[in-house]
Amino acid sequence: MPTDEPRLLHVQCLHGRGLHRMAYWEWGDPANDSVLVCVHGLTRQGRDFDALARTLVDRYRIVCPDVVGRGRSDWLADPMGYGLPLYVADMVTLLARLNARTVHWVGTSMGGLIGLAVAALGGSPVGKLVLNDVGPRLDPSGLARIGGYVGQTRRWQTLDEAADAIWAISTGFGPHTREQWLALTEPQLKLDGNALVPRSDPDIAVPFKAITPELAAAGEAALWQTFDALRCPTLLLRGAESDLLASDTAREMGQRGPRARLVEFAGVGHAPMLVQPEQTQAVREFLLSP
């Protein structure tokens, strides 16, 4: 079975006003009981994990969803639906579709918070969890930086022009070759007339920008409670220059709850893109260890 490209599939999910379709990219043998779910960050999509998938497709059936409002998934009519409760519900629906007995989870930023919530559910099938540059406490400086660009609408004439513009707000991802960056950029875009535009719904910014300090504090307390409830082995990846996951938060995550094992990557901020060999190797070693 060819493994160099994923299959695009969809699953129907429930929201307050009806149904929406969530797209997901599937690699490997669909009969494999060992499933790896990889979930992206706030403004990204499931093809971010192509490089990681190619290193693990020999061992897993790999599923990389486009969270609703991104990639090939539907957009919501009510933007206030864009939040953790709906994302978690969608992933529970996806896991039911996959009918997997063993699930490992890799989540970058927002995808890590979704994974944290799913893994802490009673009866969760998540057996191992990788949190990529995210934790219960999110640094305000990183949130402010992300808030400065999320939801912006842009139009570009060429892929190279789009890649340069997206790189300008993505330098925290760390060094990439031009070829690597173009591969990460192209799935972010779709053709609108004669211009390229982002595949993400600009309204994902609405609930993000509605977060007050009081809501943020309550959310942090709830996330620590969820983290402390984790019982599965957990790997915490951190860009050594991250402005979203502070070093003291990462250390605290190693001392409570599942006592996450920490691996840091020099020269990277928020967030490691799991493209470079040292990053994919750290994930592979953790997931495949006894």
Give an overview of the whole structure.
With 290 residues, the protein is of the alpha/beta class. The chain has a single domain (7-140, 213-288), classed as Alpha/Beta hydrolase fold, catalytic domain (Rossmann fold, 3-Layer(aba) Sandwich), CATH 3.40.50. Helix content is 34%, strand content 22%. The protein has helices at residues 50-56, 84-98, 110-119, 140-147, 159-168, 178-185, 205-209, 213-228, 247-253, 277-288, and strands spanning 7-15, 18-27, 34-39, 61-65, 102-108, 126-132, 189-192, 195-198, 234-239, 261-265. The strands form two sheets. An eight-stranded mixed beta sheet has the order 1-2-4-3-5-6-9-10, sandwiched between helices. The two termini are 27 Å apart.
In short:
Helices cover 34% and strands 22% of the residues.
Topology of helices and strands:
Elements: E1 7-15, E2 18-27, E3 34-39, H1 50-56, E4 61-65, H2 84-98, E5 102-108, H3 110-119, E6 126-132, H4 140-147, H5 159-168, H6 178-185, E7 189-192, E8 195-198, H7 205-209, H8 213-228, E9 234-239, H9 247-253, E10 261-265, H10 277-288
